[in-house]
Design a protein that fits this description.
By secondary structure, this protein is an alpha/beta fold. It has eleven helices and ten strands. It is globular. The N and C termini lie close together (6 Å). The model has no long low-confidence stretch (mean pLDDT 94).
C-alpha cells in the first residue's frame, strides 16, 4: 500500500479543541515533526490551530510538504429548534478551499469535553438522523466525503447507538478503532460487517483495562492523560487484523494516525509525542506491506 494513504492529525501531538485539554504545541513544531516522519497529509485540527484563511492554511501546509486531508467537525444535530447546516456549510467551505477531501463529523451534546454523554429519546434520534443525512448530502454536493465518527462522550458512542445509525440511515462512517473499542464496539467486527459504510479510518490502539474503566464511568480525559492510548501494536485493539480486513474488503481511503494525547508541558525538541507517532508509523507500514 502506498504511503500516500497514511496521514496524521494534530491530536496525536496533544492539540485539541477541548478547553483545558493540556499544553498546546505550536503549529510549527507539530507540522515540522510530521514532515520529519515523512507524512504527506494531515487533518486540520481544531479552529485556531492552522490559519483560518484557506489560502494561508494551504501555503503553510505546503511549506512543510503537507496537504490538507480533512477536518474533525463537531455538530449539535439532535435539537429540533437548532439548525446545524450553517455551521456545517462553514466547515465545508473551509475544507473545500484548502483542498481537503473528508469531513469527519461527531454528533456532540453541546457540552464541553467528552466526559459525559447524553441519552436521546425518539425525537432526538429522529432529528439527529435526519440532520446527519442532510449534512452528508451537503458534503457530497461539495465534493467532500462525510463520515460520522462514533466518539466517546457524544451521542453516538456505544454499540446501540452505532446500530441505530447503521439500521436507520445511509450515513457513512469514520472507523475510529480506539473510540469504538472504548465505547464497547469491536472495531474488527464492525469493519468486517459493514466495509462499504466505512469511508475514513482513524487508527488508535488502546489499553483495554483503562477502556473498560471509562465504560464503567471513570473520566475519559483522565484516562487519556494516564496513557490509555498506545502506539499501534502496543495496545489491545488488534490493529493488524483490522487492517487486513479493510484492505481485503477493498478499502481505498486514508489511514489517519490518531492517538489522543494530553501534554503537561512542552517536551524537549525531538522527543514526546513524535516518538509514539514514529513507532505507530513503523508498525503501520510493516503491517500493510
Amino acid at each position: 500500500m502506498s504511503s500516500t494513504r497514511i496521514a496524521a492529525a494534530p491530536i496525536s501531538w496533544g492539540v485539541c479543541e477541548v478547553p483545558g485539554w493540556g499544553y498546546q504545541l505550536t503549529r510549527e513544531r507539530v507540522l515540522g515533526e510530521m514532515a520529519e516522519l515523512g507524512v504527506l497529509a494531515t487533518e486540520l485540527g481544531p479552529d485556531g490551530f492552522l490559519p483560518e484563511d484557506p489560502v494561508a492554511c494551504s501555503e503553510l501546509l505546503a511549506s512543510f510538504g503537507l496537504s490538507a486531508l480533512g477536518g474533525f467537525v463537531t455538530l449539535v444535530l439532535h435539537e429540533p429548534a437548532a439548525d446545524p447546516l450553517p455551521e456545517a456549510k462553514r466547515a465545508l467551505d473551509r475544507l473545500v478551499r484548502t483542498g481537503a477531501q473528508v469531513m469527519v463529523v461527531a454528533a456532540v451534546s453541546g457540552q464541553e469535553g467528552y466526559d459525559q454523554a447524553l441519552e436521546l429519546g425518539p425525537t432526538g434520534w429522529a432529528t439527529m438522523l435526519a440532520n446527519l443525512e442532510k449534512v452528508a448530502q451537503l458534503a457530497k454536493a461539495a465534493g467532500v466525503t462525510m463520515g460520522l465518527h462514533p466518539h466517546v462522550g457524544t451521542l453516538v458512542e456505544g454499540p446501540e447507538e452505532v446500530r441505530q445509525v447503521l439500521e436507520n440511515s445511509s450515513v457513512p462512517l469514520c472507523l475510529d478503532t480506539g473510540h469504538l473499542l472504548i465505547g464497547g464496539t469491536d472495531p474488527l467486527e464492525l469493519a468486517a460487517e459493514v466495509p462499504r459504510r466505512i469511508v475514513h479510518v482513524h487508527l488508535k490502539d488502546v489499553d483495554s483495562e483503562m477502556a473498560a474503566s471509562v465504560r464503567a464511568g471513570s473520566s475519559y480525559t483522565q484516562a487519556v492523560a494516564a496513557g490509555m492510548y498506545k502506539p499501534l501494536g502496543q495496545g489491545d485493539v488488534g490493529i493488524a487484523g483490522i487492517l487486513a480486513s479493510l484492505e481485503g474488503a477493498g478499502y481505498g481511503g486514508y489511514y489517519v494516525m490518531e492517538q489522543d494525547t494530553i501534554l503537561g508541558a512542552e517536551p524537549p525538541a525531538g522527543s514526546g509525542p513524535v516518538d509514539d507517532v514514529r513507532a505507530s508509523l513503523a508498525f503501520l507500514r510493516a503491517a500493510l506491506k
